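In the previous chapter we treated chains in isolation. Here, by contrast, the input contains two separate entities that must be folded as one system, with a combined length of 729 residues.
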Amino acid sequence: MKKILLGNEAIIQGSLAAGVSYVSGYPGCPSAEIGDDFAKIAAKYGVYVEWATNEKVGLESAIGASFSGLKTLVNMKSFGINVCSDSLLPLAYTGTKGAMVIVVADDPSCWSSAQTEQNSRAYSQFGHIPTLEPADPQECYDFTKLAFEISEKFKTPVILHTTTRVNHQKMPVIFEEVKTGNQFKKGEFIKNPHQFTTMPPRTLEMKKELLDKIKKIQAFTEKSKINEIDLGKGSVGIITSGVSYLHVKEALKVLKLDLPVLKLGFFYPLPEEKIKKFIKPLKKLLVVEELDNYFERELNVLTRIANAKLQIFGKNVLPVIGELNTEKVCVALAKVMGKKFLEFKIRNLKLEIPRRTARLCEGCPYWYVFPTLKRVAPNAIFTGDIGCNMIAGMSPHNIQDTLFSMGASLGIAHGVSKSTNQKVISIMGDGTFFHAGISPLLNAVYNKSKPLMIILDNRITAMTGHQQNPGMGKTLMGEDTTEVNIEEIAEACGVKNIKVLDPINMKELEGTVKEFLEKDEISLIICKRICALLERRQKKS
Amino acid sequence: MENFNLILTGVGGQGIITLLQVIDEAAAVEGYDVKSSELHGLSQRGGSVEAHIRFGKKVFSPMVSNGQADLIFALEAMEGLRESAKAGKQARLLVNEYTLPLVGAPTKEEIIKQLKAGKNALYMVPASADCKEKLQNDIVCTLYMVGYAVAKKLMPIKKESALQAIKNVIPQKYLELNIKAFELGHDK
């Protein structure tokens, strides 16, 4: 079958072809379609799909399934791997039972990411987790299948490391049609504490087993076809991976060059012998990779052994910040080759065109909240959080004094409240509250600070494309479930001042903010009103 | 032929992803190799959105380099003007005569004046206005513009291929409306 697929759709098809039966994760951009689109078709393939409450729980969910013998897929955006890393690292020690592939989607240039321009490849090296880097949707399909095979063969989790330009790239993909009509088949957890429990002195023994395993996988990568060489002429070579390979191929065409290119499908472990063989006859090498120079550092070491005279170019001709493109690679390549390449000059328009940043949608309930807060508490410190509510930091609202990571608004608000006599207001959405907001709430109560917490409960996880969350009474696969009540959680955490209101009643909101800001302990206002887009969509259907 | 490079630009929520799907599919129906790149998430909430499509004999990168676009397909005039600064001589600009308000933005007249002052061949079409008036729906302005681009040969896609692509991509429920919009633009 041949069909135009998005990178994320190709990952779904690759997983189906590999026989996946359990999918977990947490929605984020650019990976969210993996869960969303999988859920639309999962039932007919007998696959179980869920959105976990956060990435750590999502990974642990998959660990349980893997230990019960099921093939599992986990999906998350870059920052998700930070959240789940506490369980990811021991998973490398225990290894998997049912195969497990973890998709980690980075976002160079921060197209839809706030907090940092993260290069998640660091985890592969320090966690010792085999990692593949596809360049396009066809490779998303092929590499996902291969990742399941590697996981199955070596009993290790395998990371599929992607970037926005891979996840959100479309092309015609050749894939095998998987037959439908299967029922979800349960596995069995066969006890094996020796393998599934990390506890010294066994922990150190497991580390030894892991390092031995990586050596075996390294031997496997030496023979793997996904580390491929495009033959070329001359003494200048290129090493690259992922979407950068596509830019390299275009750049070679633009500059009319025919150079040998080693495309690494494996980021970790590296096929060191193959690389040594590739660089041995070269005089110059250009390493093309996005953001930090992981390959380049490894190559500096390998060169000393294989070809000490080799001149290595990398981040001295390519940027460390921002995604790559054909033009940037052309500039770098021209420098290495001593060729001329004129960069395109952007025309001066003689007219100021303002930046069109993200804004609240028409009818968004937040339109009632931000101006009210600004008016009632102009001098308060506003700690912001991830989600649509971070638009509070943009014009015309401009009320966001800090922005960090999921749930950080309240953790930081607590610290400011304890350290100053200033009024502190934290702003968080319902999705983020369920992800990482409960723990800082408990902390603020326990350690006796007095911020005002505002939860903007728009009844869905909106920013990433309307995913279900525990407050909705629906699972990702559309089943009814317990509708978890935010105020009951807050009560149970020990919060005494709680008000649930509809922010459209701005007088009530205003009065409550004034009242709660005078309290000597933490207080909470839940502004409950459905996301305007969701409301319009519900009316339509 | 050399690869054909297309940049779609507009504002989040204008239907750029569906537009991209239709053109991708039409290029595939024509038998071209095709790759495209789109953005989701934060930028979709009313921010500027840009998507790239490349098709031809063999395409590697899904992204169009600055100065390399053959056609800039703008669903909103100010975004079209913004993008035009990155257009090479060969680029043709297809612009929806429609502006979405923004604080600090130049007036529609100023935008159009600037667009006309550029060196690129300019095609302004009242896609939103026509669709609203004749079809009571302006979200299908994207298909109107595809129809126009096909009729004026602004991209190497035949009418039959475009219609086939629309049938392959658009759900049955909205098919008739989308084809009407396509024909409306085609006959403009």
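Chain B has a mean pLDDT of 94. Chain B touches chain A through 51 residues (CB under 8 Å). Compare these points with the single-chain example from earlier in the chapter.
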